[in-house]
Write a structure and sequence with these properties.
rod-shaped, mainly alpha
Amino acid sequence: MKNMYFILLVIVLILGILFAGACNENKEDLIKAAQEGIQQASQDLKDAHAEYDKDWQKFKNDAELKILDNERKIAEFKVEIKTAGKKFKVKYEKQVAILEQKNIDLKKKISEYKYEGKNKWEEFKKEFNDDVDIVAKALNEIFETND
């Protein structure tokens, strides 16, 4: 009977050692998998940031060109206003001043933008492009009615 308890005890110890070893291997595998996941996530974040930086620079350059074009049109129109008659001045001076202020606001908005996530970035781009297009369209309409 003592031998039977002894054999049973040895079997339980062997099973315990095997189970503990298997658990340690699983823990090590889990830790390794988690570390790989962290490295992949870190690389994905770097890639996303690099993509955003590239997109931001292109967007900013395009926006600045549009704003400069608006400034050029405003300057041209101001020259025309100075040489025009009083009726023309009264009609367009205020409109040009409003559009000039909107253009200044756009320039400020682009220079102060801070990234707050992809959704906010997409929303900002759409809203900003719409605002720039509104100013450009209004300037073009003034030029068309003036001609």
